[in-house]
């Protein structure tokens, strides 16, 4: 999908959510001059406001992986200035354990309905942005996760489906109206810009720089575990996590791995000391969950067999003690939505 098509898609999503455009309307509605001008105005505002984060496939629209990487890094710098991340404190507010649980649910749910890695990664990025920006009572946390996944799916997938179908495939009892209200609240928190930098996009860009994107499917499960570990995601930016992961891949296939990784670190302006610190933590995480460390044999194995092994409905496990509570009162807003008629079990 081209970047122009993705911007147009986000514009249509915005109009649908606020009730201006019928759910059955398609992109062809924008053939009219007035609507086309409206879309172009919308797109120019998003681009000039620093929201030109890339999405879709690499090397399209004349955008190289290097250009895309710079765009993602610039966007990340604007959005993620305060690290480590922290959650709002207060009775009934969520903690890192709940965050990890819901991210594991998001990854399992994405696999269940056949979404690609980019959708799950974007959903987690949206979810994290929301839970670290506003105060969220625990009873609403699963609804926020569902809304984040729904928005990511609409942005990353060409095929659109009605909300009742989406909820039914996930075996959830939220109503379509409840999902729509939650999506609106999430987009308000994001200031109507859900094209966030995320782990998968950074890894894809970095591997493209090394002409090694074929390695990406072989670490699908490894990336899922990174997404679900707040000890890593709250202390390291997505770019650092991605570069550290890629460094472990390159090390498995080339004894001179330091040279290309140092070059990428300079390109991303990331200190190697931070990369090395992150590498150790990632290795420990994979070892703790008994994931195979990347090796030449592992990376060059039949990718189809690996996909069939990984694409199961069983939710990811997570270590509830892997992240000490880090509380903050900086986020003062509440995000609320009507509670579902029946609370959903977290595993999908």
Automatic annotation (TrEMBL):
<feature type="region of interest" description="Disordered">
    <location>
        <begin position="308"/>
        <end position="348"/>
    </location>
</feature>
<feature type="domain" description="Cyclin-like">
    <location>
        <begin position="104"/>
        <end position="188"/>
    </location>
</feature>
<comment type="similarity">
    <text>Belongs to the cyclin family.</text>
</comment>
<dbReference type="InterPro" id="IPR013763">
    <property type="entry name" value="Cyclin-like_dom"/>
</dbReference>
<dbReference type="Pfam" id="PF00134">
    <property type="entry name" value="Cyclin_N"/>
</dbReference>
<keyword id="KW-0195">Cyclin</keyword>
<protein>
    <recommendedName>
        <fullName>Cyclin-like domain-containing protein</fullName>
    </recommendedName>
</protein>
<dbReference type="InterPro" id="IPR006671">
    <property type="entry name" value="Cyclin_N"/>
</dbReference>
<dbReference type="InterPro" id="IPR036915">
    <property type="entry name" value="Cyclin-like_sf"/>
</dbReference>
<dbReference type="InterPro" id="IPR039361">
    <property type="entry name" value="Cyclin"/>
</dbReference>
């Amino acid at each position: 999908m081209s970047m122009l098509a993705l911007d147009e898609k986000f514009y249509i999503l915005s109009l649908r959510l606020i009730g201006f455009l019928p759910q059955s309307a398609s992109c062809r509605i924008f053939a009219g001059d007035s609507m086309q001008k409206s879309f172009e105005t919308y797109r120019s505002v998003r681009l000039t406001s620093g929201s030109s984060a890339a999405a879709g496939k690499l090397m399209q629209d004349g955008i190289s992986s290097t250009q895309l990487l710079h765009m993602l890094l610039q966007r990340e710098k604007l959005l993620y200035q305060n690290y480590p991340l922290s959650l709002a404190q207060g009775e009934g507010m969520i903690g890192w354990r709940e965050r990890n649980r819901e991210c594991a649910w998001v990854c399992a749910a994405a696999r269940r309905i056949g979404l690609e890695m980019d959708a799950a990664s974007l959903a987690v990025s949206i979810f994290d942005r929301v839970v670290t920006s506003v105060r969220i009572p625990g009873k609403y946390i699963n609804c926020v996760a569902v809304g984040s996944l729904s928005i990511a799916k609409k942005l990353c997938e060409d095929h659109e489906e009605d909300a009742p179908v989406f909820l039914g495939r996930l075996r959830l009892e939220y109503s379509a109206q409840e999902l729509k209200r939650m999506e609106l609240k999430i987009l308000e928190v994001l200031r109507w810009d859900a094209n966030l930098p995320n782990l998968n996009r950074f890894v894809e860009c970095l591997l493209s720089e090394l002409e090694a994107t074929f390695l990406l499917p072989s670490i699908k499960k490894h990336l899922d575990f990174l997404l679900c570990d707040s000890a890593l995601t709250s202390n390291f930016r997505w770019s650092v996590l991605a570069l550290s992961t890629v460094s472990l891949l390159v090390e498995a296939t080339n004894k001179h791995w330091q040279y290309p990784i140092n070059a990428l670190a300079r390109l991303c302006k990331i200190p190697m000391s931070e990369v090395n610190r992150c590498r150790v933590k990632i290795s420990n995480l994979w070892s703790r969950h008994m994931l195979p460390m990347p090796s030449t044999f592992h990376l060059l194995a039949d990718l189809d067999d690996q996909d069939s092994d990984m694409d199961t409905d069983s939710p990811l496990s997570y270590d509830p003690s892997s992240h000490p509570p880090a509380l903050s009162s900086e986020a003062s807003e509440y995000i609320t939505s009507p509670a579902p008629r029946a609370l959903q079990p977290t595993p999908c």
